[in-house]
Amino acid sequence: MHWSNFPASLRIWTIAGVLALLICFGVIWAQTVPPAPNQAPPTQTPASPAVVTPPRPAVMIDPAHGGSESGAVLSPVILEKDVNFAFARRLRQDLTSRGILSQLTREADVNLSTDDRAAKANAAHPLLYICLHASSEGGGATLFSAILPEAVNNNGPFIDWNTAQSASLAASRTVEQQLAGSLQRSGISARALMAPVQPLNSITAPALAIEISPTGADVSQLIAPEFQQKISVALANGIAGIIPALAQSSGAQH
Amino acid sequence: MTQRQFFVIIALLFALTMAMALYVWQLRRREWISQRVTVSAKAQHVAPPTSGAKEQVTIYVADDRAGTLRAQSVSVPLASARQPRAESVLRALINIYTSKNSPHPLAMGADIRNVFLVDPGLAVIDLNSPFVDGQVSGILPEELTVASMVETLAANIPGLTRVKILVDGKERSTLAGHIDLSGFFDVSQFAELTKEFSAT
After folding, report:
1. Residue B103 preceded by cis peptide, ω within 30
2. Fewer CB within 10 Å, N- or C-terminus of chain B?
3. Does A196 contact B183 at a Cβ distance shorter than 8 Å?
4. Is the model more confident about A44 or about A71?
5. Which chain A residues have a beta carbon less than 8 Å from that of B196?
6. Pair B49, B88: CB distance under 8 Å
7. Helices (H), chain A
8. Which of residues 76-135 of B touch A (CB under 8 A)?
9. Does the pLDDT of residue A22 top 80, yes or no?
10. Is B194 helix (H, G, I), strand (E, B) or coil?
11. With contacts defined as CB-CB under 8 Å, which chain B residues touch A197?
12. CA contacts within 13 A on the Cβ side of B114
C-alpha cells in the first residue's frame, strides 16, 4: 500500500503523531544528557540557600470569621466576615503605601479556626497582630487587648497556649492606647478596652482586636469606602508611628 | 425547534430564575428577621419570684448605643438563701433587657435556667438558648452582656471571685461568635473593665 493511497485525514494524523513523538524524545534527551565539559558551570554559588525565606511581615492582619462562619449578620446582605475582609485589604494597602510590610491570615473567604490564626501569626513572628471585627453597635472603633486567665509559670522552651500573650500584654496595651489616640486625632470616636476574645491570648506578639461600627443606626456605613478609608488611614498612620519602637523592642528581646 | 419556540423557552427560563431569586431573597430576609427578634413559641415574660421581702439591690445595666455600664438601684423580692438571691438579681437585670425600648435588647424568652454557687467563690450561670440566640453579635455588645451579669452578681453575692457561663447546661465556645465562654471570668478583672465602661 502506497503512502499516496492513504486518506488525507489519516496522513495528517500520522504526521502529527510522529512530530509529537519527536518532540517528546527531544525533551527527554535534553533533560538526561549531561552538559558538555566545555560548558560554563552554573552561576549559582554553593553558599546561596535553596529556599528563599519570605520577608518577615511587620503587621499580621487577621480578618475575623470567614467561610461558613459569617460572624455577625449585620443586615440581610451585609455579613461581618465580608466587612472584615474588605477592611483588612484596605488596611494592608495603606500600610504598604507607608512602606510597612503586612500579611493577611486569610486571602479568601475560607474557614480558619482561632487556633489556626494564632499559629499562623506566631509562625510569621510579626511585630504587631491585629484582628479585625465589625459590629452594629459601638459608634466608631473599639480596640481590645486580651484579658488573660490566671498566670501560668512559663519556664522552659514551651509556653502555655492560653497565656502566650502574657509576655506582650503590656506592649499590647501601650499600642492600644497609641492607636486609639491616633484614631481620635483623626476625628474618629475610639475607645481602648479589654476583652476575652480569641485568639488574642495565644499570640506571642503585641496583639489587638479592633471592632469597627457605624456612627449611627445605618450599618451600610460599614461597607462605605470613605468610612473604611478614614479609619484605615488613621490606623495606618498610628501603626507607622509605633513600628520603630516595636522593632527596637523586638530586637532587644531577641 | 422554531425560532418562536426557542424564545418562549428562554423567556420561561428567565421568569423561573427571577422567581427563584425572589424566593431565596425572601427566605434570607425571613431568616434575618427571625434571628434579630427570636420569639419562641414557649417564650414567657420572665418575672421575679414573689416570695421574700422586697429589697433594694444594685444591678449593672448595659447600654449598647453609649457602650456603657451603669449601676442602677431596683427593688426586688429576695429570698435569704444565696442561690435564689443570685437568680433573682439576674432576673431583675434580664427583665430590663427583654422589656420594650431596652438599652441592651435581648430576645423575649431570654432567661437564666440556674445559678449555681460553688465554694470558694465560684458562680456558674446557666443561660437558656433564646438568650444566646437573640444576643446581638459583636465584641462590645457581647462583653456588655457578660460584664453586666458578672458585676451584678459580684455586687450582690459577697465573696464571689470567678464566674462561669453555660448555655443549656453545656459548655459553649462563644456567646454569639466573639466573647470566649470557655474559661472563667475573673471578678476583679471585670471590676476594672466596669470602671472603663462607666468612665465613658
Report:
1. no
2. N
3. yes
4. A71
5. 191, 193-194
6. yes
7. 8-32, 80-96, 114-124, 169-185, 225-253
8. none
9. no
10. helix
11. 139, 178-180
12. 9
ipTM for the whole complex: 0.75
Cell of A154: 512559663
A200/A145 Cα distance (integer angstroms): 7
Question: From CA A17, how far away is CA A11, in angstroms rounded?
Answer: 10
Cell digits of residue A3: 503512502
CA atoms within 13 A of residue B153's CA, in its CB half-sphere: 33
Mean pLDDT computed over A13-33: 65
Among B7-11, B69-73, B157-161, the minimum mean pLDDT is found in: B7-11
Which residue shows C-alpha cell 510579626? A126
Most distant CA pair in chain B: distance in Å? 87
Q: Give yes or no for a contact between B75 and B157, defined as CB atoms under 8 angstroms apart.
A: no
**Count of CB atoms within 10 A of residue A134's CB?**
32
**Structural contact between residues A176 and A145, judged by C-beta atoms closer than 8 angstroms:** yes
Q: Which of A58, A52, A62, A195 is nearest to A120 (CA)?
A: A62
CB B180 within 8 A of CB B172: no
Find the residue in B nearest to A74 (Cα): B137
pLDDT tens for each residue of B44-83: 445 555 567 888 999 999 998 888 999 999 998 888 888 9
**Helices within A33-138 (DSSP H only):** 80-96, 114-124
